[in-house]
TrEMBL record:
Its EC number is 2.1.1.80. The keyword Calcium does not apply. Coiled coil: none annotated. Keywords: Methyltransferase, S-adenosyl-L-methionine, Transferase. This is Chemotaxis protein methyltransferase. Residues 11-287 form the CheR-type methyltransferase domain. S-adenosyl-L-methionine binds at N87, T89, R93, E131, D157, N215, L216, R232, N233.
Length: 287
């Protein structure tokens, strides 16, 4: 049985012609369009994620797919980036960030609101939206009169598919299993009929969040300054030469002494001197 499985796996692996030249070409395109640096050992991952695209397009060789991407006659670049990028997230992932937001950041934001009359928070690399809605829950639970204030959350991601999921606010019921019963009841509507087994985020949360597709490597259309930026578990895929100008751009679009949250395995050491570490993967803009 093991031998049969191995033969079956090898057969799948050889369905499409995939040379080292193809892999190198795809790695360069991934870097150009997403800023993600793919290591040599990611060859099988690239094959696995893009094989579906070749199958859908009726192609048999990766070199033909590379040519298609270079010409981009069918807007395949969007499908390509959607397939390559990783979208792993959950509600209140890295819980300490949201506790810090509620306990320390929100009171400071309320003080600054008297001067600025607005609060803007950016969830960069928001994936399917759980992070943005976790921020929205935290704000609503911390600011009783939030509907009387100009407070908005921008959620962006490179992947157009996950942006659509976030905008709909519909998730499998299993996605909220870890939340306490009060939050489940207050912020999620249980589905019925064809939607049984699913939940939808409440309108009170959805009105706070705007979802937009955005490539962090391209021009940013936003002009206003942000008070808080979440960019977590995104730059882990970027090399240092890509990270440095990216965090420079983040600093430029943030207010003085604003807050930046990054992922648990990420750091700004030797990347940016415009932020000061104030907590566990929590930074304050200092210049």
């Amino acid at each position: 049985m093991q031998q049969a499985n191995k033969l079956s796996q090898n057969s799948r692996e050889q369905t499409f012609e995939f040379t080292e030249t193809d892999f190198k070409s795809l790695r360069e395109m991934v870097l150009t369009h997403t800023g993600i640096t793919l290591a040599e050992h990611k060859r099988d991952l690239v094959y696995g994620r893009l094989a579906k695209r070749l199958r859908a397009l009726g192609l048999t060789r990766f070199c033909d797919y590379c040519d298609l991407l270079k010409n981009d006659k069918n807007n395949e670049i969007e499908q390509f980036t959607n397939a390559i990028t990783t979208n792993l997230t959950s509600f209140f992932r890295e819980k300490h960030h949201f506790e810090h937001l509620a306990k320390d950041i929100v009171p400071a934001l309320m003080d600054s609101y008297r001067v600025n009359n607005r609060i803007r928070i950016w969830s960069a690399g928001c994936s399917t939206g759980e992070e943005a809605y976790s921020i929205a829950i935290t704000l609503r639970e911390s600011i009783p009169d939030i509907d009387r204030r100009d407070i908005r959350i921008l959620a962006t991601d490179l992947d157009s598919d996950v942006i659509q999921t976030g905008s709909s606010g519909v998730y499998s019921k299993t996605r909220i299993e870890a939340l306490d019963s009060e939050r489940k009841k207050r912020w999620f509507k249980q589905g019925s009929g064809e939607q049984k087994g699913k939940v939808q985020v409440s309108p009170e949360l959805r009105k706070l969040v705007t979802f937009k597709q955005l490539n962090l490597m391209h021009e940013w259309p936003m002009r206003g300054k942000f008070d808080v930026v979440f960019c977590r578990n995104v730059v882990i895929y970027f090399d240092k030469p890509t990270q440095k100008p990216l965090f420079e751009r983040f600093a430029n679009i943030m207010r003085p002494e604003s807050t930046l949250f990054i992922g648990h395995s990420e750091t700004l050491n030797n990347v940016s001197d415009r932020f000061e570490l104030t907590g566990k993967t929590v930074y304050k803009k200092i210049r």
